[in-house]
């Protein structure tokens, strides 16, 4: 007996169109061969919704746990992803706004592909800012105080729900709590959506891997400034332990950079 993954077998799926602000607009049922390419299925969905199918539109497979949700590659078949009858897919644009903060205090907004893993987005941002060795950089979420308060409320709600639903969900909630610190690096292999990075969040671009000082190009002012700002921030905030003499030397360098050469008429104790 043929199942939904048998070549030539037809499946019926529910497709929901998602608007630009994440709202559900309308749903349709599509009957397609399981061997149909996602590209063709997207075109059929566009016809049903009476809209144009553009390259940025895609099918998204939602899941209760965000790290298991994913976008379907338009070059693959529905069978490749194990799509079967009664499955629900979202038809939505992959484009999203990404706000990035640099350590010098500047902020920039980029339009990025939400289906791309974080490592690809870091590469794009580095290239646009003329930052070399993009593989050494990644993102951390720069939460605002208000966003932290919302997260704390959500955490308490998860804890309460976990106690009611049993140990399995409690463990999952514990994993979420463990990962929610400001110093958490985003997983380079996962997408922003899989890590619950909301559009209102800003990401802080920082150097993650330090191989050796000899690898730093002293003639690259962009990279040197990034390293300076990152070291200054992490030393002053206590995240990077240093010896006392090293801290004094770095403080002296900061004074030199900020105030210039000593002027006895201007720089008085």
Tally of helical runs: 6
How would you describe the shape?
A: elongated
Rounded radius of gyration (Å): 24 Å
Helix/sheet category:
alpha+beta
Question: Which segments are poorly predicted (pLDDT under 50) over 5 or more consecutive residues?
Answer: 169-179
- H/E series, N to C? EEHEEEEEHEHHEHH
Enumerate the strands of the largest sheet in spatial order, edge to edge or round the barrel.
2-1-5-3-4
Number of separate strands: 9
Mean pLDDT: 86
Distance between the termini: 89 Å
Biggest beta sheet attributes: 5 strands, mixed
Q: State which percent range the strand residues make up.
A: 15-25%
Oligomer: single chain
Helix content: 25-40%
Give a description of the structure:
The protein is built from 6 helices and 9 strands, in the order ββαβββββαβααβαα. The protein is an alpha+beta fold and 269 residues long. The strands form 2 sheets. A 5-stranded mixed sheet has the order 2-1-5-3-4, with helices on one face. Strand 3 and strand 4 form a beta hairpin. Helix 3 packs antiparallel against helix 4. About 4% of the residues have low confidence.
Characteristic terms for this protein:
single chain; 269 residues; alpha+beta; five-stranded mixed β-sheet; four-stranded mixed β-sheet; 9 strands; 32% helix; elongated
Q: How do you describe this structure in short?
A:
This protein has 269 residues and is an alpha+beta fold.
Explain the layout of strands and helices.
Elements: E1 10-18, E2 24-33, H1 38-48, E3 57-61, E4 70-71, E5 88-93, E6 95-101, E7 107-113, H2 118-128, E8 137-142, H3 145-165, H4 167-178, E9 202-207, H5 221-236, H6 244-259
Parallel strand pairs: 1-5, 6-9
Antiparallel strand pairs: 1-2, 3-4, 3-5, 6-7, 8-9
